[in-house]
Amino acid sequence: MPVTPVDLNDANILITGPTGQVAAPIVDALSKIANVTALARFSKDSDKDALEQRGIRVIRADLADKRSLDACPDDFDYVLNLAVVKSGNFDYDLAANGEGVGNLMARCRSAKAFVHFSSTAVYEYAGHSPRKETDPLGDNHRSMFPTYSIAKIAAETVCKFAAHQFGIPTTIARLSVPYGNNGGWPYFHLLMMKENMAIDIHPEGPNSYNLLHADDYIEKIPYLLGAASTEVTTTNFGGSQAVSIEEWCAYLTELTGFAPNFREKSTAFGSLSIDTTRMHDLIGETRMDWREGIRAMVENLSPQLLR
Ligand SMILES: NC(=O)c1ccc[n+]([C@@H]2O[C@H](COP(=O)([O-])OP(=O)(O)OC[C@H]3O[C@@H](n4cnc5c(N)ncnc54)[C@H](OP(=O)(O)O)[C@@H]3O)[C@@H](O)[C@H]2O)c1
Fold this sequence. Notes:
By secondary structure, the protein is α/β, with parallel strands linked by helices. Helix content is 35%, strand content 19%. The chain has a domain at 12-180 and 211-240 and 274-287: Rossmann fold (3-Layer(aba) Sandwich), CATH 3.40.50. Strands 3-2-1-4-5-6-12 form a seven-stranded parallel β-sheet, sandwiched between helices. A three-stranded mixed β-sheet has the order 8-7-11. Helix 3 (90-107) runs parallel beside helix 4, helix 5 packs across helix 7 (245-256) and helix 7 (245-256) crosses helix 9 (290-301).
């Protein structure tokens, strides 16, 4: 039986990383039913202005800089931490991602629940075996994002420390491959296919993941918050169906006529599908069929590319 979802209607919710790929659709959806505050560095003023014009309260802060959080109220009901930085500079990325979640939790210690979004990039490469939450961690994404996996592992540890220290009910959700009408990894693949750019895949194919559509991750947020515990609940967070890069690129070929130019490389991320047992127990199955989600993404972003 899935956990009881929290009621987000009229709740005060802080969302960090609101201009990012994953958070943007969450901000859109939740700002219709709740009081959303959006926190980022807002490197681009236009991002801040666009949110403010939609009536969303914004806070300009850098999670790496504890003092900049003085501007952040400390009485949110719920916090969704979707901020992430992968600058390649270890000092800054560990400060912003690792210490950053600690700074945020220290500020928001009265929250009823906190969800920290992590990544399946924290798992060590292990071929085709679907990764369980208890499986070994490793520097999975080093070849493309040198600081990412290490910083995400560090962030999980700081998050647990802060949850235990301050008694904040917390869920760590390890995202697989989020995508939706605003894009995501399959959309980058389509653009690469259009330009005939090489797409790196691991020689031990198929390169499987669990595509997670925005409609599904938005629907599951009240469940992730409901699953939060002061012991910290860690769960994989992906689509219930596993699907490979090879399969979704073949489907993109069917839709558009562009063919993938695969290049086998042993340093590519490789298969990273998830064991869904704990996720299904806590928050239930996802609903979006991956073909339907990919078709909708292309129809929305590049309808001219459809055959
Ligand atoms: N996208 C994926 O395929 C994927 C896959 C697995 C997991 N995830 C996880 O999902 C979450 C969201 O990822 P995303 O891909 O949507 O990120 P993204 O597109 O790179 O956006 C990052 C967001 O964080 C903000 N940010 C960056 N550094 C910050 C700092 N120091 N202080 C405050 N805000 C900061 C950015 O705004 P400013 O630059 O203006 O501050 C932006 O709003 C992350 O936890 C990521 O690890 C993503």
